[in-house]
């Protein structure tokens, strides 16, 4: 699915965000500052989706949605950079990352901490494929509130078929679980390739079968409930 949306002109914020402000709010280390300097050319706070800009009511979990444009210096982006920005800005953010004439949409699922609502829980990151920067944008989805809009903006980034009627939190947790199993499978297959003892190969093959069965169960459940 296409992940670029046509945001209303009224929601345009269009302010360059100084890296120094990110450093201050995120308590960035020297190494993190160096990473920003090496990789990021400019950060633009492009759109602010809020009740006063798009006439959609806020919710406790999603008071606003921010759209940030990240202009890269050399095409490389470390997710630590995005996580630093997410820590500095206590609101959900959708990142549009640009390099030359290409664009990629990246976001983590952010929600208030259940025990301390002044803090935010940040998921792992999900991303679209790279696409031409002039790709035709989709019309902004119709939504009853910002929580529902956030889900619609995020869904194109979920890498597996989604469960009909499931909350964004549940979908993200499932996607993270599938990703974890895929990583385990890759590591275990690497172990198998390097192993020379027959009895160890047999044991590792059994581990691989178990992980594949777990993955099949997870992805099969998703596919059976695809919207």
Q: What does this protein look like?
A:
The chain has 227 residues and is of the alpha+beta class. It folds into two domains: 5-157, no CATH class; 173-224. The protein has helices spanning 19-26, 30-39, 51-54, 79-88, 146-154, 168-194, 198-224, and strands spanning 5-6, 12-16, 40-49, 65-72, 93-99, 102-112, 120-127, 131-132, 138-139. Strands 2, 3, 4, 5, 6, 7 and 8 form a seven-stranded mixed β-sheet that branches. A two-stranded parallel sheet has the order 1-9. A hairpin with a 7-residue loop joins strand 6 and strand 7 (120-127). Helix 1 (19-26) crosses helix 4 (79-88) and helix 6 packs antiparallel against helix 7.
Gist?
This protein is α+β, with helices and mostly antiparallel strands and 227 residues long. 42% of the residues lie in helices and 24% in strands.
Highlighted features:
42% helix, alpha+beta, 24% strand, 7 helices, 7-stranded mixed β-sheet
Topology:
Blueprint: E1 5-6, E2 12-16, H1 19-26, H2 30-39, E3 40-49, H3 51-54, E4 65-72, H4 79-88, E5 93-99, E6 102-112, E7 120-127, E8 131-132, E9 138-139, H5 146-154, H6 168-194, H7 198-224
Parallel strand pairs: 1-9, 4-5
Antiparallel strand pairs: 2-3, 3-4, 5-6, 6-7, 6-8
Helix pairs in contact: 1-4, 6-7
Q: Tell me the major beta sheet.
A: 7 strands, mixed
**What structural category arises from helix and sheet content?**
alpha+beta
Strand elements, count: 9
Strand content: 15-25%
User: What count of structural domains?
Assistant: 2
SSE series: EEHHEHEHEEEEEHHH
Give the termini distance in whole angstroms. 13 Å
Discrete helix count: 7
Rg from C-alpha positions? 20 Å
Mean pLDDT: 91
Broad shape = globular
Model regions low in confidence, pLDDT < 50 over at least 5 residues: none
Share in helix: 40-55%
């Amino acid at each position: 699915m296409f992940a670029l949306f046509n945001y209303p002109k009224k929601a345009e914020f269009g302010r360059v965000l100084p890296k120094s402000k990110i450093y201050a709010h995120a308590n960035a280390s020297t190494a993190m500052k160096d990473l920003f300097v090496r990789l990021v050319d400019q950060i633009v706070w492009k759109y602010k989706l809020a009740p006063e800009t798009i006439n959609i009511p806020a919710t406790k979990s999603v008071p606003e949605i921010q759209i940030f444009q990240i202009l890269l210096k050399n095409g490389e982006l470390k997710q630590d950079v995005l996580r630093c920005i997410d820590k500095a800005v206590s609101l959900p953010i959708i990142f549009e990352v640009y390099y030359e004439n290409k664009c990629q949409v990246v976001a983590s699922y952010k929600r208030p901490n259940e025990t301390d609502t002044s803090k935010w829980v940040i998921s792992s990151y999900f991303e679209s494929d790279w696409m031409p920067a002039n790709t035709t944008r989709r019309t902004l989805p119709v939504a009853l509130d910002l929580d529902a809009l956030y889900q619609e903006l995020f869904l194109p980034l979920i890498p597996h078929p989604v469960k009909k009627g499931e909350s964004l939190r549940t979908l993200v947790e499932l996607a993270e679980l599938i990703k974890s199993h895929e990583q385990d499978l890759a590591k275990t297959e690497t172990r198998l390739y390097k192993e020379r003892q027959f009895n160890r190969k047999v044991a590792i093959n059994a581990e691989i079968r178990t992980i594949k069965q777990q993955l099949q169960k997870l992805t099969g459940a998703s596919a059976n409930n695809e919207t």
